Amino acid sequence: MHAPLSSVSRLSFSGDGTVEGYASLFGEIDQARDMVMPGAFAQTLKVRGLRKVPMLFQHDPSEPVGIWLELREDFRGLWARGRLIPDVMRARELLALVEAGAVDGLSIGYRTVRGQIEPRTRVRKLYQVDLWEISIVTFPLLAGARVRAVKQAALPPRSLVRTQAEREWRSMTEAADEPAPRLRPRPAVVSASLRSREGRRSALGTVSHRYSMLR
């Protein structure tokens, strides 16, 4: 399940592409009416470790954008600090989007291990979850799960091979967009029987007539 959060803390970027913020807040009810309880991440963090919790964009497993450097529980929730990888195009886009304030949400993807629904409020309290991933998202379910700070990462120099390949690709696509050149109509084929003397004379006369016209 995916659970974005509430708006007390903002996702932040730093100079080396570092991002940090709360991925989950304890005691907060999200839009799915789930409430994560203190200690819910203790076991999964111990078992999985940092490298097995990917940093994704919009919960898309085909869009990894960085790595998490620190994940820990405190009195408030699950604190996350990671680094966007500037070699990844989507990560460079996220740097610009977060700095502009266009994207600043954090959301967790998880499986409920132990939870209980309160009959009166219909709120599901999550006492233990298996954390799958943490994503930077546009719309967090929990308003306080936000990126707090980001440092601008230096972009790697573009390789000459890549630059040349992109230039050739652009020239190919531009050539494909150009209209095809108009061809001059081919002269009509003279159909005459060459078996008889009269047919050969007629064919030679037609060809010489067309030749004189072309001159």
Automatic annotation (TrEMBL):
Keyword annotations of the record: Hydrolase, Protease, Viral release from host cell
Domain Prohead serine protease: 18-152
GO terms classed as biological process: proteolysis
Presence of keyword Protease: yes
InterPro entries attached to this UniProt entry: Peptidase_S78_dom, Prohead_protease
Molecular-function GO term, any one: peptidase activity
Domain of life: Bacteria
Residue segments, region Disordered: 170-197
Protein name: Prohead serine protease domain-containing protein
